[in-house]
Amino acid sequence: MTIAITGATGQLGRLVIERLKSHVDPDSLRALARTPSRAAGLGIDVREADYDRPSTLEPALAGVDTLLLISSSEVGRRLAQHRHAIDAARAAGVRRIVYTSLLHADASPLSLAAEHQGTERMLKDSGLAWTILRNGWYTENYTGAIAGALAGGALVGSAGQGRIASAARADYADAAAVAVSEDGHEGKTHELAGDAAYTLDELAAEISRQTGRTIPYRNLPQEDYAAILVSHGLPSELARAIAGWDVDASRGALFDDGCQLSRLIGRPTTPLQASVAEALART
């Protein structure tokens, strides 16, 4: 069985490939990358595959049995890009697609949900076998703010007391490796999230505990939080989106207590304490 991985040079893609090497023969893996030179160190076969140049996709997928379609990072363009990948997979004779979607994509208020909903529909209408991995938030989305919190003396956001059931990127990589390499996942949708949810108050308390400093959480109106993100160099559209996702989190959009992720990977998800410690080690 040959397995191809899109987004192979991204943070998730690289982790998935490393995990897969312990599940299957590395010679059966194929990295798909827009810029193949960036994938040279992955240690597996690399093929050029650009979502925006459909002519590159079908040749890259020739001989592939299972495609791990890691969702594109280009919000607003994902649906067309994913359509190109699905059409090319069907034309190339791919048997199954495993897709990384969004937690509770069918009901999520997050602005990201619409493109995932559309991709899930395309998959189910494609005639191919499919597996959907509805990934929750990466813990790194929040621990990435630790350096700024330490510099500014507070963790800021707009998530209120919303509980966030995030998991480490490595946990989701393990789940993808299992789903593409093991039997029993065809036609299934997995809602994947961390075992233990937390609020940003609790994240701030954990940062304080591990650093010996008092780092409070400051909850801000959406517009004020977006303005702070812009002041740190983020484009205004992205800053507004991130602040909006926090507001959605305050209403439960990032919560799940089904523990499907830990059952799928056969171990507990990475604790918040470990993710904070890892982030602090890098600051």
Automatic annotation (TrEMBL):
<dbReference type="InterPro" id="IPR036291">
    <property type="entry name" value="NAD(P)-bd_dom_sf"/>
</dbReference>
<protein>
    <submittedName>
        <fullName>SDR family oxidoreductase</fullName>
    </submittedName>
</protein>
<feature type="domain" description="NAD(P)-binding">
    <location>
        <begin position="7"/>
        <end position="179"/>
    </location>
</feature>
<dbReference type="InterPro" id="IPR052718">
    <property type="entry name" value="NmrA-type_oxidoreductase"/>
</dbReference>
<dbReference type="Pfam" id="PF13460">
    <property type="entry name" value="NAD_binding_10"/>
</dbReference>
<dbReference type="InterPro" id="IPR016040">
    <property type="entry name" value="NAD(P)-bd_dom"/>
</dbReference>
